[in-house]
Amino acid sequence: METRRNTALVARFSAYETAVEIGIGRRPEVAVGLADAGVSVTATDVADPDTLSVPPEVSFVRDDVVAASERVGPGDTYDADLVYGLNLPPELHRPALEVADAVDADFLFTTLGYDSPAVPCETESLAGGETLYVARKRE
Asked: What range does the record give for the signal peptide (predicted)?
């Protein structure tokens, strides 16, 4: 589903060459939009990929970002310019930030709207009323 929010997120994220979406769930629209814009996108989720309907233009790896943050290295899956999460619950903010730190990637995320960020971050306002949290920017 194309929305002003998704369009704004794709526009913001399409400056990156590679991206990893944490917890894609059943809403692949932003990842597909990025793939269509020429960004190499990998999606992760703990769910069975057969239940998620991830389209073929988006690579999928079944993984848990919490487990990835606890490994010596999070793994090649996360080797990207951008790690992002949409509607990311607070309990995943710190693990996702730790993964982004480990691979020297930017970490941007949105929340469900009523959740506060669980990590220090800056905010950006996007079209459609979306607040984007910027927890890590590469130097």
From this structure: none
